[in-house]
Amino acid sequence: MAGRRAQMMEETKGRLVQAARRAFAEKGYAGASMDDLTAEAGLTRGALYHHFGDKRGLLQAVIDQIDAEMAGRLRVVGERASHPWRGFLDEYRAYIEMALEPEIQRILLLDGPAVLGDPSRWPSQNACLAETTLRIQGLVADGAIPPVDAEAAARLLNGASLHAALWVAASDAPEATLAKALDAFQRLAEGLARPA
Length: 196
Known about the structure:
By secondary structure, the chain is mainly α. It has nine helices and no strands. It is elongated, with a radius of gyration of 19 Å.
């Protein structure tokens, strides 16, 4: 009985997140009506409040879902590279390029910061920072890049890529901005591979 109840709760949460994701992508956070999205999910506002607290909590759940999907896509990009350092840089480039995708642009890079505050302080960014620090330590240990303070390098790379993505998303000419951002990011990041 408890297992069935837990499964039903997860299904309810999933339906709300999917309905919210569609609404936020199509209408933006401010334009998305809680009544419309709960009706689309076949649920009540009470279910939304019970599972997410409010519309802001639902946005966080949508962002967490998108962020997890992005992480999976980036891992695939990195695994395709012939060298771990190249794969590492390819993942960053792909992350910045994702700022052109309408759903990521609107939900994660425009509405997310406007509603949830500084993305560099989101739990997902902290997890990414920890993982990046470990990966840089591994690259140094394997001799793929010269010794560097792994946390400092991770903070600088993550910050640069996040701000590049935010810049692309907010730009009136995103394609042109992307080209500039990728060029500058590549030059910045490749400096880590050169001996001091």
